[in-house]
Specification:
40% of the residues lie in helices and 21% in strands. The chain has 19 helices and 22 strands.
């Protein structure tokens, strides 16, 4: 077949990219065409996403793609993080910039929410991990504040849906991202309208649920004119970035085939889980605070959100602010040169959600828990990486318990694949084989869904075979596992009070 180009807009919490996936019928390759920064913008004591700046950058990338590939481009799709959203008012007027999930308006809101509706009831309906920034609590915070935006709203679109609307004018909610809101019921596969009503929220804001792979239609005429792209189709991929990343896991077995593997989608967040045919919603998954999100092919992603490389990213930012500039490679070398398993933290402690000074927050945690304070920049990063590997082991054991399956292989995909120290620490700590790669898993999953939507690839099983044929992985085998056992016992004591 003639080579066909699929464009993936992949928006993460710290950066955005536009990539081209080139498919010749046998192999797939990715090329980054445009990269730009992303992050919270503080306005009047609130944190927002700069939607218009992101939209401008997406169009810049689209123009560059036109100049490079022209008529070879078949389609385009957008994936982003979950939970955050934009609101449309009457006449499809955009109501302000979306709030950032780290905004303080939901601080302490879980305790208040559970007074309104019992925690067990919320979980029984949604099966979603409790985090204060879930869409449900963002909306309820707006209701409690009598937000005029909520009063004027006629439609809620999650972030990828919002960009698809900007591209096409079609307002629809893609299922994988909808499942992150904590008002989607994975058993009925529909919105949990009764739950929303108990929070004095209306499901009239919510629209049609569509499947990953849905062809939304052509670009708005003005967007086609602005970017030079015409005759292409916009596709809804698995628009939650983790769902796209899991689609790109180069595994040979699937949810229905009793797989013996789990995944870590490693980036700002680490999303660690299994692909299952049905949700696990019971007292144990509630107690362990696991989540059941929708994946490709009507699968369930049973997983845990872990703080991830956010700890390292924010530490690097603090070092730079103090005049100590490090490349990622330099930080990794400093960490490896530091003694390991000296001081440990719980990566998911609330103090690490949005601290002004991450290294200071790490040292404060060590001080509170009677441990040696990391005495260098390398020691801070080593503490973060060791603690992430220990958290992965905890989640691994929980996954085996919840699924009733033994896990032999951990697939790591995403940007964290490039952190070889963390990959090896994961193998050592968990005592499992680690297969690391591909790096651009989220964008790759986005492109793969477009190939399926176009008919170039038969289904998602064939899409995974295409990943194995097109991209290399690096194997890490466990070593020095005895060092980690006593550290894990110390770590468990640190997290006893929290799931």
């Amino acid at each position: 077949m003639a080579e066909r180009i699929y464009l993936a807009v992949d928006l993460g919490a710290s950066s955005g990219r536009l990539l081209a996936g080139s498919f010749d019928g046998a192999r797939l390759r990715l090329e980054e065409l445009h990269r730009f920064e992303n992050g919270p913008v503080s306005v009047a004591c609130s944190k927002h996403w700069d939607l218009l700046a992101l939209w401008q950058q997406i169009q810049i990338g689209m123009r560059g793609a036109t100049q490079r590939y022209g008529r070879e481009i078949a389609s385009l799709a957008v994936d982003t993080w979950g939970v955050d959203f934009g609101l449309l008012g009457a006449g499809d007027v955009l109501l302000g910039n979306p709030y950032h999930y780290r905004d303080s308006r939901t601080d302490g809101i879980l305790a208040e929410a559970f007074q309104r509706v019992p925690q067990a009831e919320i979980f029984a309906t949604t099966g979603i991990q409790f985090m204060p920034f879930n869409t449900l609590y963002q909306l309820w915070a707006m209701r409690l504040a009598n937000s005029p935006l909520l009063t004027a709203a006629r439609r809620l679109l999650l972030m990828p849906d919002l960009f698809h609307w900007l591209l096409t004018g079609v307002a629809a909610n893609e299922r994988t991202n909808a499942s992150t809101t904590q008002f989607y019921n994975p058993r009925t596969r529909n919105w949990a309208g009764d739950l929303l009503a108990k929070f004095d929220l209306s499901d009239e804001l919510l629209g049609e649920l569509i499947e990953p792979g849905t062809r939304l239609g052509p670009l708005r005429p003005e967007v086609a004119h602005e970017t030079g792209l015409s005759g292409i189709t916009v596709v809804a991929p698995a628009s939650h970035d983790t769902a796209s990343a899991v689609m790109a896991v180069p595994a040979a077995t699937f949810a229905a085939a009793d797989p013996d593997w789990c995944y870590i989608s490693s980036g700002t967040w680490s999303l660690m889980g299994m692909e299952l045919p049905r949700p696990v919603i019971d007292d144990t998954s509630l107690a362990l605070n696991f989540t059941n999100e929708v994946g490709v092919g009507n699968t369930i992603r049973l997983l845990k959100n872990i703080a991830g490389l956010w700890l390292v990213q924010e530490s690097r930012r603090s070092f730079a602010a103090a005049g100590r500039q490090y490349s990622w490679e330099e930080l990794a070398r400093l960490a490896v040169a530091s003694p390991h398993l000296v001081s440990l933290i719980d990566p998911d402690d609330a103090s690490f959600l949005a601290p002004a000074d991450m290294p200071g927050a790490i040292r404060d945690f060590c001080l509170r828990t009677g441990q040696p304070l990391p005495d260098s920049d390398g020691a801070v990063i080593r503490c973060a990486l060791d603690s992430l590997a220990l958290r992965y082991r905890w989640v691994l054991e929980c996954l085996e318990r919840l699924s009733g399956r033994a896990i032999g292989t951990i697939h790591i995909v995403g940007g964290g694949v490039q952190n070889t120290a963390l990959c090896q620490a994961t193998a050592d700590c968990c005592g499992r084989r680690v297969l690391a790669g591909p790096v651009e898993a989220t964008a790759l999953g986005n492109v793969l869904m477009q190939t399926v939507a176009s008919g170039d690839v038969a289904d998602w099983a064939q899409a995974r075979a295409l990943v194995r044929a097109s991209f290399d992985v690096t194997e890490y085998l466990p070593r020095r596992t005895h060092d980690w056992q006593s550290a894990y016992e110390r770590f468990q004591q640190l997290v006893t009070a929290r799931a």
